[in-house]
Specification:
The protein is α/β, with parallel strands linked by helices. It has a single domain, classed as Rossmann fold (3-Layer(aba) Sandwich). The protein has a 7-stranded parallel beta sheet, sandwiched between helices.
Length: 246
């Protein structure tokens, strides 16, 4: 068990990569604080974590709401006495080409995919500094490295998350806190639901491994980065993309 006794907050944990990460962390012995705004699906994930033998709690919270994020972090700290890992995974897409993108589409994606990462990381940082250890993991994307058609808002946020990662790894590294980002390629989760079938087929064809990723394959990387096995990995952006960017 690579995460035995570690208290981990995972955002966007109700489905997709976040749900797979919550379950993987539970299987690795972590105490899981699972956060999402979708209460019903979140309950099922927490139940699955408990079935795996872990302590787990559900927090129904919109991660773009700073007050609620602060409350959630304070509750987790009160309940479990420490926070060892934060996985900033919650994310949305609101795609449109530059000329068609509305301000609301732009703001919604920046609020969840960028601002919420700032909120949660700022909320956990003091506690991690006081305990002299911690891990912050941020969900970027290959889109945060290469850009993507129709994703001005998403690309800005995912590039920004890499900026956070590199900056915080410098600021917090000396305090014993590691900060890394994961940049998945195209992973088979509900977030891909709005992508037309023919575009998905082209994506699949561009991947040397010949398929989309599975949520568990990203969760495995989060588990490694959260564990002490990654003790010298800091400020890294790890692509989990089946080689699609080669
Ligand atoms: P998903 O849509 O399946 O799940 C995202 C989860 O985040 C949902 O449960 C949703 O309810 C939750 N969420 C959204 N906004 C929230 C908010 N304001 N507060 C709390 N919870 C919120 O997505 P996924 O595919 O599992 O993606 C997870 C992360 O990985 C995202 O940051 C995404 O950008 C990133 N990513 C995904 C892919 C992919 O191909 N699936 C590729 C690269 C990066």
């Amino acid at each position: 068990m690579r995460l035995k006794g570690k208290v981990a907050i995972i955002t966007g944990a109700a489905q997709g990569i976040g749900a797979a990460t919550a379950l993987k962390f539970a299987q690795e012995g972590a105490i899981v604080a699972a956060c999402d705004r979708n209460a019903e699906a979140l309950g099922a994930v927490v139940e699955a974590c408990r079935q795996a033998g872990a302590q787990a709690s559900a927090f129904c919270v919109d991660m773009s709401d700073r007050e609620r994020v602060d409350e959630m972090v304070a509750t987790v700290r009160d309940r479990y006495k420490r926070i060892d890992v934060l996985v900033n995974n919650a994310g949305i897409t609101r795609d449109a080409r530059l000329q068609k993108m509305t301000l609301k589409q732009f703001d919604d994606v920046i609020d969840v995919n960028l601002r919420a990462v700032f909120h949660a990381s700022q909320a956990v940082a003091d506690g991690m500094i006081a305990q002299g250890s911690g891990v912050i993991l941020n969900a970027s994307s290959v889109v945060g490295i290469y850009g993507n058609f129709g994703q001005t808002n998403y690309a800005a946020a995912k590039f920004g998350v890499i900026g956070f990662t590199k900056t915080w790894s410098r600021e917090l590294g000396p305090k014993g806190i590691r900060v890394n980002a994961v940049a998945p390629g195209f992973v088979d989760t509900p977030i891909l639901a709005t992508i037309p079938a023919e575009v998905l087929e082209k994506m699949r064809a561009d991947v040397p491994l010949g398929r989309l990723g599975k949520p568990e394959e990203v969760a495995n990387v989060y588990a490694f980065l959260a564990s002490d096995e990654a003790s010298y990995v800091n400020g890294a952006v790890i692509e989990v993309a089946g080689g699609m960017t080669l």
